[in-house]
Each structure stands twice: as structure tokens, then as C-alpha cells.
Amino acid sequence: MDVPLWLALIVIGWLGLKLIRPPWWLVTVLLLGGYLLADSLLAPVINTAVK
Predict the structure, then answer these.
(1) Residue 44 is inside which H or E element, if any?
(2) Radius of gyration (Cα) for the chain, nearest Å?
(3) How far is CA 15 from the centre of its chain?
(4) In this predicted structure, what is the pLDDT of residue 40?
(5) Shortest CA distance to 22 belongs to which of 11, 34, 14?
């Protein structure tokens, strides 16, 4: 069974929010911070570190 990545991320995120119940401000900061880092000058450095 092939599951699209976007669907798996939505399900995992929803389960994480339901089970762990982090504060909404933390979720917002992590999402916004990740989006801003992905489009910054640090993106190539992060990419090589993750690989």
C-alpha cells in the first residue's frame, strides 16, 4: 500500500496533537520557524546535516 507523504504527515501530526497535546503557540512557532529556515541562507547547511 502506497501512502502519499502529505497524507502521512497530516495523520502523524493530527495524532501528535491529540495524544501529546502541545500548546498551540509551540506548534505555530515550530511550523513558522521551519518554514523560515527552509527559505534562508542556512538551508544548504541544514540539508547536508540532515543527509
Answers:
(1) helix 43-50
(2) 14
(3) 14
(4) 87
(5) 14
Q: In Å, how far are 8, 10, 11, 17, 44 from 3, measured between CA atoms?
A: 7, 11, 11, 21, 28
- Number of C-beta neighbours around residue 4 at 10 A: 8
Rounded distance, CA 26 to CA 36, Å?
15
How many CB atoms are located within 10 Å of the residue 45 CB? 11
Kindly report whether the global pTM for this prediction surpasses the value 0.85: no
Q: What is the pLDDT along the chain (51 residues), one digit of tens a residue?
A: 798 988 998 999 999 999 999 999 999 999 898 888 888 888 888 888 888
* Among the listed residues 48, 46, 49, 15, the one whose alpha carbon sits nearest the alpha carbon of residue 33: 46
